[in-house]
Design brief:
Helix content is 32%, strand content 23%. It is α+β, with helices and mostly antiparallel strands. Strand 1 and strand 2 form a beta hairpin.
Length: 301
């Protein structure tokens, strides 16, 4: 998220959207089950390999949504002016955060970069390499690593700038999710991949679908607009008439429906007409008849 949006309601919504995209990323790499969990302000991902073993990642979302650079922040110093602190105090601050993540079960870290709503790049590494990377980055590029007021570890920068090479200390320790899937805790660092190879077209498409569902779900308070049904696992986002899934994917472009009602739309047994759910002849009798001409309802705020 951008610095301007940090610590406001939108940042919390962005965080929830990011968490909804994480399973798609891991499943696209072959993991069989993903569990997101939180400990206070810290976020973790339990990624299950096909053999049943679990790799726990400390999840950090990058603070910028600019496409060409991104870094993760580790918190803000309280009290003293950060400009007066020694580099060693910044290093110790990061080390304490890493220790806390390890104490909560993390063996790896995952830094994600969101742009245009979806995850456009990510870096995975062993948890101890977070501290090592930050120590090297602050030694070589202190202005960036100190970031005025908060320890910041940059993991992506494709700009033509002299200090863009600061990301090399992270990229040299990067481990692909595929290698972690194959070798588990014994997987070692590999040459960095390009973002385009990491986030495939299929994964990107599924992420955009999920992001659309999250936006529509938030707008409708995660209740079916026709029935009021409120179990997230069986609620779908359907595009409204005249909206194209290739271009129209904002919250106002969709309606939240129970999965079976969405299926009626897909099979041309129902339609959205003038803000109402209309059934066609093939579905007018039976259990769905009660929903004919029901007005679509947003959840009360």
């Amino acid at each position: 998220m951008s610095k301007q949006r940090a610590r406001n309601p939108q940042s919390y919504l962005d965080e929830e959207h990011t968490l909804s995209l994480i399973p798609i990323l891991f499943e696209g790499k072959g993991y069989v089950k993903i569990v997101n969990r939180k400990h206070g302000q810290m976020k973790f991902v339990d990624a299950y390999r096909p053999d049943g073993t679990v790799i726990t990642f400390w999840l950090k979302q990058g603070w910028t949504d600019a496409i060409n650079f991104c870094g993760v922040q580790f918190g803000m110093f309280g009290g003293a002016d950060p400009a007066l602190l020694q580099d060693s105090q910044f290093i110790d601050y990061v080390a304490k955060r890493v220790t806390s993540a390890k104490d909560k079960g993390a063996s790896h870290a995952l830094f994600v970069h969101r742009g245009n709503g979806i995850i456009v790049n990510y870096v995975a590494m062993k948890i101890d390499d977070v501290s090592a990377s930050y120590t090297e980055q602050i030694a070589g590029w202190p202005k960036r690593a100190r970031s005025t007021k908060t320890p910041t570890l940059y993991f992506e920068d494709t700009r033509n700038m002299p200090d863009a090479m600061c990301v090399s200390v992270v990229q040299s320790r990067e481990i692909s999710l595929e290698l972690i899937l194959e070798f588990g805790l014994t997987a070692t660092a590999t040459p960095p991949q390009s973002a385009s190879k990491k986030v495939t077209a299929e994964i990107e498409y599924r992420m955009r679908q999920q992001l659309f569902r999250s936006k529509v779900g938030d707008r409708y308070g995660w209740k079916c607009a026709v029935t009021g049904f409120a179990t997230r696992e069986v609620l779908d986002a359907a595009h409204l008439p005249g909206k194209d899934w290739r271009w129209n994917n904002e919250a106002e472009d969709g309606v939240l429906l129970r999965t079976d009602l969405h299926r009626l739309l897909d099979r041309n047994l129902a339609e959205i007409r003038n803000g109402q759910f209309w059934l066609k002849n093939g579905a007018l009798s039976g259990p769905y008849a009660q929903f004919h001409k029901t007005s679509l309802q947003l959840a009360e705020k």
